[in-house]
Amino acid sequence: MRNFTGRLASVAAMLACLGALSGPALAEQHSHQSGSGQETASGIDVRSAWARASAGRAVNGAAYLAIVNSGSEDDRLTGAVSAAAARTEIHAHVERDGVMRMTKLDGLDIPAGKTVTLKPGGLHIMLFRLRSPLRKGGRFDLELHFRSGVKKTVEVEVHPIGGRPMGHEGHGAHK
Ligand SMILES: [Cu+2]
Known about the structure:
single chain, 175 residues, Immunoglobulin-like, ten-stranded mixed sheet, 1 helix, binds copper (II) ion
């Protein structure tokens, strides 16, 4: 019985994971800045970090942000940690056989002079097993680790879920 329950829990986690990403992706523009990013000698700056409020009993979430490399050296995002979640991964969406799927990345190149934007339907920081639901208006810290040794802590703002209930039909909401 224990095994069966465990399996149900992991299926629920999977659905929640998909649900977190299948909302009205482009319904809102998040042009304001969180103000928590700061320039350093590395030239890496993180801006506009946000997450969508959890839907129902969703156990997973995703964080979105923009990483600016104004330095002259290429860098690479190698991981992230947050007290808000048990585990994080860098994820991308890739289309395979006409279906969008999430894929774990080992890292994310941040070329010199470029901005890499993580946004719904695309790149994101997956937050597995949230310690508590993400509530609209809430905030949590996310620490980003870079190959150069730079660590950046940003404050992630939790935004409303959006206009319509999120289903579990997958990743069709992009574009
Ligand atoms: Cu994901």
